[in-house]
Amino acid sequence: xxxxxxxxxxxxxxSTMIAMIARKEAGGKISxxxxxxxxxxxxIRRGCIYNVDAAAEKTDSLIGRLNEAYAKPKLNAPIxxxxxxxxxxxxxxxxxxxxxxxxxxxxxxxxxTEIEDEIRQYKPELYExxxxxxxxxxxDGQLTDSPRxxxxxxxxxxxxxxxxxxxxxxxxxxxxxxxxxxxxDYTVIPxxxxxxxxxxxxxDLGCALxxxxxxxxxxxxxxxxxxxxxxxxxxGGLAITKDIRCLNVSEEEAESLxxxxxxxxxxMDDVRKITIDEGLNTEREIEVRNLNTIxxxxxxxxxxxxxxxxxxxxxxxxxxxxxxxxxxxxxxxHLEESFKNRTNKNIRLAYPAANGTDWPAEYAAIIGLxxxxxxxxVEPVKPAVPAPADPEPLPPAPNRKKKKGLLTRFNHVMxxxxxxxxxxx
Length: 425
Prior knowledge:
The chain is α+β, with helices and mostly antiparallel strands. It folds into 3 domains: 1-90 and 167-198 and 356-383, ATPase, nucleotide binding domain (Nucleotidyltransferase, domain 5), CATH 3.30.420.40; 92-164, Dna Ligase, domain 1 (2-Layer Sandwich); 199-349, ATPase, nucleotide binding domain (Nucleotidyltransferase, domain 5). The protein contains 11 helices and 21 strands. A hairpin with a 4-residue loop joins strand 13 and strand 14. Helix 6 (237-244) runs antiparallel to helix 8 (288-313).
């Protein structure tokens, strides 16, 4: 039976970089063993690495802490490879089509292989291809799942490519990971998130997955079990935090106000006030409704962009499973209510599962990276089995000569007795 694997993944988020080591069972169940975090605002911008040296220091520290906290003491081995999430503000889907004439009147594997080779070699001028999604085949204009062996005159393979406009994004990401650690694979963040929070039925019936991050918001549309549309909105929770700073608070205070008191729906009847400690024994108060006037305005802008992209996808009317929201920004109070009021669709806040329970939505991407991982990242060293002790020495061999002497005398005595018996007779 297949043994469990030890998997390590890094999610380079705009505000926080998360690293996890987990045990992945043969059935795919994820058990997180240890987590480390680091502030990443000064090296990641809108989901992209922009300061390679600073990012490298962060990842080196995270991997080192995972090693010291778990890998070395528990598995007796260091982390050898990691899975890394990849994305950014320009992440989106591009369509690409390959058409071929069928010379032999029947589609053979050779022709399909030729098409696959062509798409792998395709390099768009302005983009880097991160992922090639499975093709849809049209044989003489008719969609078919199994073109091989079909009689036809022409075949068309329609591909969806996940691309970014950032040049050499994978190369930059490689430089941001210590050389001694191999990158097992790059996983596109929205694909990882979908693996963590969507089920097969939702993908089949049609749904929109909206991941609210700190720097960007990803919108993915699924229908018929396939990713149909993907686009990135270059706005996220960090924009709300920066807006709150107009209340004359620090960024740390603004983030705390958003998390603890922010709401996507403004309640003008809320007369509560928040006390801000300004030091030197001075305090001031901020009205909650003033805070949420700012929060609602920025979230309205983000939601308007999300809804526009859903409508542009062409699938807005066929999302039977509704809209699924996740990510750290999705935890904003009353976001589900605001979204539902604007779309009149079913809205579900999704949490990733690990260790047999739901985790906060901000962990959706990292747990998705672990879910998608396949290869061992740490090779545990089993404790050495002590060699068996040397057997105790055997007792010294008996003195054969002495025994032989006794036996000889015994034979002589017996012979003498037989001779006496003979004489008596």
